[in-house]
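Tip: read the tokens left to right.
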């Protein structure tokens, strides 16, 4: 069975609680990303994507060689010529790279296509993160893909939102508690029969007692498995990017970021602002007309 390669929309919904006052990226903000270091981009492969709305130039990181080499292979064999931007969510990202989209009908559901293989994750975090302009690989969800393996061809470009430092702090708390919640859910699943019985009996006191017991056990397991681990925090580089140009910080560390836009974010913004319909597909087709390597890695 094919699965759609989607980017954590559920996580996006979870972040809404922290984005009620976030200013969206405006059309006047056309910078590709926070000032990339010369070390990051020196000697990188550059690819030119000619789209319905204009050109986008991207740099592929040398630190993610399998994704870089695979992308170059697909560019050179014409895989990306004619594919649609099949999933567009304003102030989040634009997704493309599904070979099945080239001749898709208006009502076709897209997002499950690929070259017939996937790639092992190359998550170089926190060095590379989901700032505005980041290029990252789409993938199947965690339930079917716990190793975070990447789609063989589908990718997305982050547009994102700006966040205040306060909002990042609250999001950081959520990230720190995420694993505790996962442990709690796993333990609660093992006590499902007990929980359902107490619910059927209407015994709220016993339910609260069981919840407290499971929470204490989850806390103990978490502390034992993380006693030597450093707490996760946003780096100064992340904070600087997310509070100025914006991005999608809730995706950090879970998807392979393997490049960034170096010019043409104004084109990406035009794409993210198009009208969309079912499954966030643009009402009027937006395509990568052609893709070509303009500078090889050195």
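Filled-in amino acids:
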């Amino acid at each position: 069975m094919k699965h759609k390669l989607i980017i954590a929309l559920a996580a996006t919904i979870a972040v809404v609680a922290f984005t009620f006052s976030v200013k969206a990226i405006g059309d006047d903000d056309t910078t590709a990303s926070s000032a990339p270091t010369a070390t990051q981009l020196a000697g990188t492969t550059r690819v030119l994507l000619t789209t319905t709305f204009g050109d986008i130039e991207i740099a592929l990181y040398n630190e993610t060689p399998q994704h870089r080499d695979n992308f170059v292979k697909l560019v050179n064999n014409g895989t990306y010529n004619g594919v649609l931007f099949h999933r567009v969510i304003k102030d989040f990202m634009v997704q493309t790279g599904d070979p099945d989209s080239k001749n898709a009908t208006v009502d076709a559901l897209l997002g499950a296509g690929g070259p017939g293989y996937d790639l092992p994750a190359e998550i170089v975090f926190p060095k590379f993160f989901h700032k505005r302009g980041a290029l990252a690989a789409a993938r199947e969800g965690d339930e079917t893909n716990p190793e975070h393996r990447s789609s063989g061809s589908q990718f997305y470009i982050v547009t994102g939102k700006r966040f205040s430092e306060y909002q990042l702090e609250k999001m950081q708390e959520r990230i720190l508690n995420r694993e505790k919640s996962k442990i709690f859910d796993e333990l609660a699943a093992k006590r499902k029969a007990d929980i359902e019985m107490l619910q059927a009996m209407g015994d709220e006191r016993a339910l609260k007692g069981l919840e407290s017991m499971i929470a204490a056990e989850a806390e103990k397991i978490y502390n034992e498995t993380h006693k030597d681990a450093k707490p996760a925090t946003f780096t100064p580089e992340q904070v600087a990017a997310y509070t100025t140009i914006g991005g999608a910080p809730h995706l950090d560390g879970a998807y392979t970021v393997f490049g960034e836009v170096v010019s043409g974010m104004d084109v990406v913004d035009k794409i993210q602002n198009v009208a969309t319909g079912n499954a966030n597909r643009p009402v009027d087709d937006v395509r990568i007309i052609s893709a070509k390597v303009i500078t090889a890695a050195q």
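The beta strands are 45-51, 54-60, 85-89, 93-96, 118-119, 134-137, 150-151, 155-158, 257-263, 288-295. The first helix runs from residue 9 to 15.
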